Amino acid sequence: MGTKRRFRVWRGDSSGGEIQDYDVEVNDGEVVLDIIHRLQATQTPDLACRWNCKAGKCGSCSMEINGKPKLGCMTRMSTFEEGEVVTITPLRTFPVIRDLVTDVSFNYQKARETPAFAPPAGLAPGQYRMQQVDVERSQEFRKCIECYLCQTICHVVRDHEENKKAFSGPRYFIRAAELDMHPLDAREDRKEYAQQSQGLGYCNITKCCTEICPEHIKITDNAIIPMKERVVDRRYDPLVWLGRKILRRDELEDRPGDGNGSMAPSTSVGVTGVAAGTPFSSARAPEGPPIRDDGRMDVTELTMPHQGGPSPFGDDQAFPLPPGNFVYNHPAPGKDEAAPEGGH
Amino acid sequence: MATRIERHHYDVVVIGAGGAGLRAAIEARLAGKRTAIISKSLFGKAHTVMAEGGAAAAMGNVNSRDNWMVHFRDTMRGGKFLNNFRMAELHAKEAPERIWELETYGALFDRTKDGKISQRNFGGHEYPRLAHVGDRTGLELIRTLQQKIVSLQQEDFAATGNYDSKIRVFSETTITELLLDDTTSARGEAAKIAGAFGYYRESGEFILFEAPAVVLATGGVGRSYKVTSNSWEYTGDGHALALRAGATLINMEFLQFHPTGMVWPPSVKGILVTESVRGDGGVLRNSEGKRFMFSYVPDVFRRQYAETEEEADRWYTDPDNNRRPPELLPRDEVARAINSEVKAGRGTPAGGVYLDVSTRMPAEVITRRLPSMYHQFKELADVDITKEPMEVGPTCHYVMGGVEVDPDSAAASGRVTGLFAAGEVSGGMHGSNRLGGNSLSDLLVFGKRAGEHAAAYVDALSARPRVSTPDVEAAVDTALAPLQRESGENPYTLQQDLQAVMGDLVGIIRREGELSDALKRLQELKQRVVNVGAAGGRRYNPGWHLALDLRNMLVVSECTAKAALEREESRGGHTREDFPKMIPQWRQVNLVCSLDDNGEVLLERKPLPRMRDELIRLFDRAELSKYLTDDELAQYDAVAGSGEAAGATNKTEATR
Question: Do B244 and B177 touch, CB atoms closer than 8 A?
Fold first, then answer.
């Protein structure tokens, strides 16, 4: 039989909102989405939440559970401690529409900007021949269910609204990689496109996207790094290499994303509540991965100070957050220009 | 009352953004029509993503003996000969082209050794026929079509500077009413479609599409059932919209219960375990450890299925010289067998049976062949299918019935023109039972046809039909009503009650008393739904959305219950405990539902179209004798005789 559990759910819309407490029944074998459905059916019929398949295949029910972006249908209640309070908030990176539903049109915009598959000339339908081993690399990326968890966790946009214009995010890096590796795609410039138009250079390989991917796509290792590596490969020029050796970083001309200053370290201006004044871990100088003497990049990140890169929540932040003092304010678009709200 | 309504003008409005809807939209746009796609969810989240096994198309890549005639035969056999033969024929003939076309859109199917599209075995298909991508074929299909639409939008952007200039996706938008041109119906002609009315889920604002052609591609009705694999979107919207616009529904008594849905843990009850688990060697056992399917091979299939475990096991490696395992019987047979085992007390604690691959092949083979299945069970249920068996049982999966359509044009029958339907919402293609894998190819074949013919219909119109203002006002009132009854009945409770009625009384095994009882209860629910209320405002209010969906679910459930009561036999997805046999006379009858002037469901019997001579000659007399009446068999003998006299072109094929 079920037990009563405390749930804290953010309710509100673009004009603001707050976390509300609910006591709700939880049964064996249930997932977080089941509990939301029970809330809708018994206490809050108008609680807004997206969902479709309830089987981890459609990527609709993305939400932040105890501060971590997750699929509601894939988060088993048995993964929480007995009596643990569960706090549910909308995806932080996207503007909120209502309750747990956010405006994810950013992703659809980026999808539109990514050039589509270019069919090879002279091959009629039915004449395509490809080897399994060759299609498998792209197939890995086509497993993507477009839950946008990687987009929401990526610190390049998570706390930097201003980067959204120039940065497509991990979902569209794997789309570019998928087409780059497609055995019959007729375009040759997928990597250059990713570098020049998708903002691939903004990525400093913290691997957060890979860690959060519910489909376990190796976004960083299998898509981003090969794309970066080969772009470097092609753009390799001995003089550039020498420049990198002797000039200071800030004297280099083509620092990725430097054009509009959007890669400047962030301040915590837009942060309110208990976290006000706490610098984000991403508030450090953006740094590309190290380039080896042969002009290539390491394919692994073993040489980085932290394996897997720093957490966007801060390296000393353990999850789940302690219940009770978890405050959530959905960031407003343009927050970085706004004056700090201050206080709690 | 000043209600803001956003107006749009399109040539073709496609309602539904799953496989059929997207394929129809692509075709309409390629025909130069301004096209709108309406999606209840976000773009790319459609229920099509759940299809795992593959798309059936007789490409003959794995077994070169396969061709459209064999596929046609399998489809008719699976549907117990109740299929609209012309739809089955078009489907079998055109499916390979539709699959190949997807490759030009960027799809990446699994490959054979010689680099062609790989094809796998599936229940009811004589040869390996399902083009697949691991066990996420539906996702590949939806993503491919989604990306093709984006690519068309990119072309339009290059030409006009606007991505949305010729094809636009209205995501999270629900259509509540189709609008007709009153002047045509007043003259006693079939009414012309003039548009569609609905709301944005996000804002609750109303939206009106003025369009001469509407393609319904809204999928199925499963949310009216307690245990279902279907998502919340499957509320029978297209079925109900068609009925209210004057179109007819056929075969509504036939619902497919997928034999193997998860029954444990409870939170994922209903989620499917793909049939390819069985195609690749998985076996069904009861709680006593017996491989029970051997006891449930019906006479009509006896010749094609193995009688011993040894022969069945040899089939996986040598299909040409052995008969297939009975685990690969059509879905309804497997569902019924599982139901019987559970009822006989040989089920699992959670009320299912065991489906086991763990003892049949090494762990790495399982994880390679069934990666997302492995993943799903591990993550959702903490069950390792390489180490322990799964617990499975029947779950409501697919509705064979739907909008009665013209097979070639996908145009809806009845008192309306300009209305088209494709995919699960249309009826006839699958007869009384759908073969696995035939659904994805159905989407493509008839999605394309619907888009093409909708565009042609628009071209042939001399004048644009006009939306009448009183109809729009009435649609607004209906949509707002639940919000004005804040203390009305809880829509979630009503849905649960409806699910209980349908699940308990109109489920997999049916009886006259229960069906009559169900009809009575549905009438009571109708009274309660009139008083449904929704607290909260118009912005993204799921309670309000459900309140509006309920009337669709109710009218479609009523069609199912009425047709199920009328059909006094058991066939495919309709099993009557009181009439357990398949009766040849009933094969000649389609049950057709429409709404009368008072909005009540009207049920009529209509004859099935007669199969063309060269098609019926594809079947053995012995096989046909299980389905046809004596009169029909006499006709067949006359046809077959004259065929042989005329040279018997299909002789080898027909007698294989």
Answer: yes
